[in-house]
Amino acid sequence: MTKENKHPIPFIYIMMTSLLVFIGMFIASMAFGSADASIKDVWLAMTTNVKTETALMLREIRLPRELAAIFVGAALAVSGAIMQGLTRNPLADPGLLGLTAGANAALAITLVVFPAVNYFGLMIGCFIGAAVGTIMVFGIGMVQKGGFSPIRIVLAGAAVSAFLYAIAEGVGIYFKLSKNISMWTSGGLSGTNWGQLQVIVPFIIAGILLSVLLSRQLTILSLNEEVAVGLGQKTTQIKVILYIIIILLAGASVALVGNMTFIGLLVPHIVRAIVGTDYRFIIPMSAISGAIFMLLADTLGRTINAPYETPVAAIVAIIGLPFFLTIVRKGGKLFS
Questions:
Q1: Looking at residues 314-328, what average pLDDT do you find?
Q2: Which domains does the chain have, with CATH numbers?
């Protein structure tokens, strides 16, 4: 019996509930921060053209920031779910397998080689870096027989990530750009503007929609590749497309907010406990749950020590690291 049949609650009800939670979390994230606003202020700022100081703050500073949290959370969660399905590795996550480290290193190199580069150019650099990080990790993993075992891939990811982070730091120190590079790679949502969203968001939306379209094929691949071949699937082409989607989602996320680990690991595990193993359900639920998680993390970062800001990456790591260690301890079967 497949796991999804064990859940008596229809998926449509689960999705509707998660959407209500998402809306509530979005309203809370807009209302709370170093400068609190009432729900009425949020409503007026979103639905009218009122030009009070609070409304302008909500529209021009907080709204783009929370939209960035939504799309980055969704992108990282979906990319993590795809990676776990493709590799059948419960520890797979863009931040743990070299993608975000590669994007960070490429971003640093791009800032040095093209100091006047625009935001689109930085994003392309991040895509290339994410691809290089992925190739390095899986290249190391394939050196020996059985290389795609979960632990070996994670160890390869840790080694490659450390190497690529060292490159980014070395480039910053040597070319005296450490401050600029740290601003990009520290993992934060502050300073996000509408121009950045206009460049990044279409790539994230396209990646998520493509992943939804390929979710049935991903479900079959995640169970048994031989069965997928027997059913006539072009497994190589599907894998290539899915890896391109992962690179798009992870690269776009790093270009927008810098390094974020554990979201792509944590969210898909929780989602599978709710909806089962069918990726037709896992992908959309991961997108919504990832958005909720990032909104929560950003709201906590702005309110825990207000008016000072706690880095979102630190909040995510505090939540994600114990979760990661628990999964490792249970052999990847925390929610199985």
A1: 82
A2: 3-30+60-329 (1.10.3470.10)
Rounded Cα distance between 75 and 17, Å, is 21
Task: Report the 10 Å Cβ neighbour count for 216.
Answer: 13
What pLDDT digit, counting tens, does each position of 37-69 carry? 888 989 988 888 888 888 899 999 899 999 999
| Nearest Cα to Cα of residue 87 among 330, 264, 260 | 264
Q: How far is residue 296 from each of residues 69, 79, 135, 184, 286, measured CA to CA in Å? A: 9, 19, 33, 21, 15
The 10 Å CB-count burial string (b at 16+, else e) for 161-183 is beebbebbbebbeebebbebbee
Nearest to 296 by CA among 10, 19, 29: 29
Among candidates 204, 192, 205, 183, which has minimal Cα distance to 298? 192
**Rounded CA separation 66/28 (Å):** 10
Q: Is the peptide bond before 307 cis (omega within 30 degrees of 0)?
A: yes
Q: Closest Cα to residue 308, out of 54, 30, 34, 66?
A: 34
What tokens does 1 get? 């019996």
Q: Collect all residues with Cβ–Cβ distance below 8 Å to 259 and sequence separation of at least 6.
A: 95, 100, 101, 104, 185, 186, 187, 313
* CB-neighbour burial class of residue 202 (10 A; exposed 0-12, middle 13-18, buried 19+): exposed
pLDDT, tens digit (0-9, with 9 covering 90-100), for 179-199: 777 766 665 787 788 988 998
Q: Per-residue confidence at 4, pLDDT binned at 50, 70, 90?
A: very low
Contact 251, 103 (CB under 8 A): yes
